[in-house]
Amino acid sequence: MLKTLLLTGTLTLVTVARPGPAGAMEDKYWVGDSSWWDYEENWDPPGQPHNFDTVYLVQNDAVDRTVWYYNTEYPDEWVNLLTIDASGPGTMTFEMTSGFDHPLKANGVTVGGEYAGILEQYSGDVTVSGELKVGDSATSIGTYDMHGGSLRTADMHVGCDGEGALHITNASADITVSNMLSFGPRGTFTAVPGTVIHMTGATFAIEGTDGGSLAGLGKVELVFEGGVGDVDPFEVAGEDRGAMVAGFFGNFAVGGLTLGGVDIGQVVLAESFDNSPGPDAQYVKYLSVGAGSTLDLNGHTLYYGVLVDGAGAIIGGAPVRVDRCGDADMNGVVDGLDLTAVLSNWDTTDPVADLDGNSVVDGLDLTAVINNWSVAGGAVPEPATVLLAALCGMAAARRCRHR
User: Fold this and answer.
1) Which phi and psi (to 5°) does residue 125 adopt?
2) Does residue 342 sit in helix, strand or coil?
C-alpha cells in the first residue's frame, strides 16, 4: 500500500507491502477480434489468463475491438497487470458486461498506457491491490465509464501524465479507495447526483488547474472512514471566492465531505499543488463531521453550504458558512425546488431549508427565496406571485401537520 502525505508542499512516499503475490506466470496477448475473455483461442499463448499472468489487451490496426469479460473458470484467481491500449485508429474496449457478475482481481490495471484504452463496467466486482491508472503516459488517452458494479482499489489515478476520464453514470456504483484518489493535470471527471466514494485511508489529491474539468466532484459525497490510525490529506484546490455560492461552480467544489462511516474519519487539509490563483480554498456543499471524527483545517479556508453533522472535532481554524441566497439545493438556480424545501420543512430545524442558519425554517428563509428568485432561461415571476404560492403552501403544510 502506498501512502502519499500532502502536508508540506512536497510528496513523501511511504511504502508498505501490498496484498497478493508479485510476478507473472505468463504474458498473455489478445489476438482475437471482438469476443469473450474466456475463449482460449483469443489469446497468445492460448488459454484464459489466470495465476498472475500479465495481460495485454492491445491492438495496432483500424478494427474496433471489445473484449467481454466472462470468467467462470478462474473467478478467484488474480492476474498481475492488465493493460488496455490501442495504438492504431481502432479502439480497444474492455467491458464488464451487464448480467455477468464475475469478479476481476488484478495487482494493477492501466487504461490507456501509451495510447488509448476504454474500460466499460456495467456489473461485476473489480479489485485492484495496487494502482488503477486511467491515462498513464503523456501520449495516452484512457476512459473509465462506470455504469454499475463495484470497484475496490488501493490507488486510483485519473490522468497520470496523459488524458484520463472517469465517468460515473449510476449512483448505485460501489466505489472504495484505500490509499490514494488523484486527478492529474489532464484528468476529467463526471458523475451523477448521489454518487458516493468511500475513502478507507485514502489521500485525496488534485493536480489540475481547471475546476470545470472535475465538475463531477460537485455531485459526489466523499466518505472518509479510515479509522483511528489513519489521517488522510485532502488537497485544497479551489479559488477563494469568498462566502458566495459562486464558489460551488467550476471551482473543484465537493458535493459532500463526510467524516465517519463504518469507522471514524480523520482528514487534514493540505495545499501541495498550485491549483488556483492566490491562496486556495475548499468549497463543500454538505459538510458532516461525525462523533469521534476530526477535521483539521490546518490553517486553510473551508466554505460550506450546509453543516449536516458537527458532532466531531474541527480544529486548525473555523469553517465559513456560505450565504446560499435562497438556493437551498445549491444547484445555481433559485426556483420552485428551493421554495418547496422551505415550505415542506416550515418551523423545523432542517439544515438544508434553514438558509440563514438561525436553526429554524421561518419567514426569513422564505424571504431569501423570494428576493433571489430566478428561473434559468425563463421569465422571473413577480414577488407577489411567489409570495401567494408560498402562503398557500404554508397553509397546506400546516393543515397536513395538524391532521
Assistant:
1) -115, 120
2) helix
Residue range 86-111: mean pLDDT, rounded: 95
Q: Which amino acid is at 163?
A: E
- Which one, of 281, 317, 321, lies nearest residue 299 by Cα? 317
By DSSP bridging, strand 141-146 and strand 116-121 are: parallel
Q: What is the dihedral of CA 8, 11, 16, 19, to 10 degrees?
A: 120
Domain ranges of the chain: 2-321, 336-402
Q: What is the pTM of this model?
A: 0.88
Predicted confidence band of residue 390 (pLDDT cuts 50, 70, 90): low
DSSP state of 352: T
Cell of 69: 469479460
Rounded CA separation 36/126 (Å): 17
C-alpha span between 202 and 199 (Å, rounded):
5
CB crowding 296-307: b at 16 or more within 10 Å, else e: bbbebbbbbbbb
Report the DSSP beta bridge partners of residue 306: 286
Task: Tell me how far apart the alpha carbons of residues 271 and 10 are, in angstroms, rounded to a whole number.
Answer: 10
280-284: average pLDDT: 96
Strands 43-44 and 27-30: antiparallel
Contact 300, 317 (CB under 8 A): yes
One DSSP character per residue, 27-57 reads: EEEE-SSSEETT-GGGEESSS---TT-EEEE
Distances (CA, A) of 93 to 35, 80, 121, 189: 11, 19, 10, 19
Q: Comparing C-alpha atoms, which of 335, 315, 314 is closest to residue 326?
A: 335
For residue 19, is pLDDT > 50?
Answer: no
Identify the burial level of 40 via C-beta atoms within 10 angstroms of its C-beta, where 0-12 means exposed, 13-18 middle and 19 or more buried. exposed
What pLDDT, on a 0 to 100 scale, did the predictor assign at position 399? 43
Backbone angles phi, psi at 280, to 5 degrees: -75, 155
